Amino acid sequence: MTTNSDVVVRTEHLTKHYGKLVAVDDLNLEVHRGQVFGFLGPNGAGKSTTMSMILGLIAPTSGNIEIFGLSVKSNLADILGKIGAVTESPGFYPYLSGWDNLKVFARISHNVTDNRIKEVLKLVDLADRAKDKFSGYSQGMKQRLAIACALLHDPEFIIFDEPTSGLDPAGMKEIRELIIRLGQEGKTIFLNSHLLHEVEQVCNHVAIIKKGKVIAMGAPNDLIKHGDTLQIRVTDIDKAVALLNEEDWVSSVTREGDLLILKAPTERAADISALLATNGVFISEMKAREDSLESFFLELTEEETVD
Amino acid sequence: MIDQIRAELFKLRKRKMTWIMIIVLAAFLCLIFFAIYGITASPPERMPHEGLETMRNLITFPDAFTMIFSMAQNIGAILLTIIVASSVGNEYGWGTIRQTLIRRGIRYQYVLSKLVAFIVYALIGIVIAFIIGFCLALLTTQWVNGALNWDFMTVSYIGELFTMYGWTFYGLFVYILLAMLFSIVGRSAIVGIGATLGYYFVESIAISIFNQSGGWLSEIPNYLIGHNISAILPTTMMQGPFASSGALPSTLYASIVLAIYCVVFLGLSLYLFKRRDVTA
Q1: What number of C-beta contacts closer than 8 Å exist between A and B?
Q2: Which end of chain B is least crowded, N or C, by CB within 10 Å?
Q3: Residue ranges of domains in chain A, CATH in brackets
Q4: What is the pTM of this model?
Q5: Does the interface ipTM go beyond 0.95?
Q6: If you write DSSP's letter for every residue of B232-243 in order, what string do you get?
């Protein structure tokens, strides 16, 4: 059972309209203390708008946001003191060095000392380049500086908006490891991403959003178990599709080249085999397919697209 | 709020443009002083004696002071517009506005801290212009008159200098607020600079036209910024190429009109900045 003090972020009927466009639609979310919460969705799903509303940058059309039990509308300044955020394409002053940039943001944060600036620069491995101008930084260095900036005031809750965007694989790995480490230190993390394997590796709770609405939410393992998937190769693919589509325990049949992907309980593999064999269709290969968050996500988002 | 003002001053101090603008101001002052001195040293044959005398007065004490403040206002307005608009507008372009607001969130503090930093910059800028102008006038007075005479420098004259300093700043303050407003409206440095300087130049042309018309049209300049700034500035013929002509309103009237503009510009800036979403 969760108590109010466990809830770091709660959105209730959160909605944002831009004219006729509904960017976020009646969104209800809860992020609990200590969670590494993945917020997934295709581009334009409303992830960044939601994040901006949580940070007070965008005013909701309707609905409420509570962070640490306080309303964002009336307690924003107090709330922001406990939040760190890494926005997509983070903004810094190009004419200042990394150090001076952090110095500017340290001045407008509370109780941030020069030692703390050194600490966070070391944490993101930028200490050696701290005196270089920001305009000369690579994309990876800019992203790491943004993370250092978000950690300056040692926030309890950290929001990452596409933190590995524009990074090379090594840089992505570094950032993922850092997020995992922060999660292990007890920080609550809210990770906005469309990189599913990233979310799968890092997050212990996810919400999938499409067209501004949450379409699935839960622990990644629970979501992945949501459907059993079988992969079969048959002698007559058209006939097999027709036969399997008539069975109510087969929830979907899709083609992938010369393979059929079935959504059906794996324990009914023998029934599938018997059904097809008695109708003159023979199976040359059958195996259970390992579901991933990616396949679950694609299934959800594509299904809706077809509709 | 104090921390935020310190951060704004730190950014201004660290920016090359800040110092370039001061150098441009100094260069303009040197150019004007030496150009006038050049003309007075070898005047054109047809130049009337009164005109020559007026020019000599402009670069010698005590009239040189009014010219220094007048130049600080006219050139300063253009340079400050560039600094203010680029400082406010580039925060949108660089994305630093988001980075700042997700730390503090209190939007009026952001606008006010920037404003205070610009006020400090303008006040220091006028002092620097005064020091440079003073040094130049020391030279040109020596060259023109052969000696310096400080008899005019009484306590009441020093008080007058402070008053001139205050009015010069007041004239600049209106343009600071106008440049801030346009940069916030356009969310861009280019819009801020273009719209403010556009207004500055178009208004001065309009004032000249209105001043030459009769009837109610000639009353319009009394409600415009440039004409009222001309009314509060120290009067010299060097009020810049866009100085107002025609009958000027009283200092009290002009300062009230300008105060109304200031309140409107600041109010609109705060209102728009608070109301609008800050998107990427």
Answers
A1: 86
A2: C
A3: 4-219 (3.40.50.300), 229-290 (3.30.70.1340)
A4: 0.81
A5: no
A6: HSPP-S-S-TT-
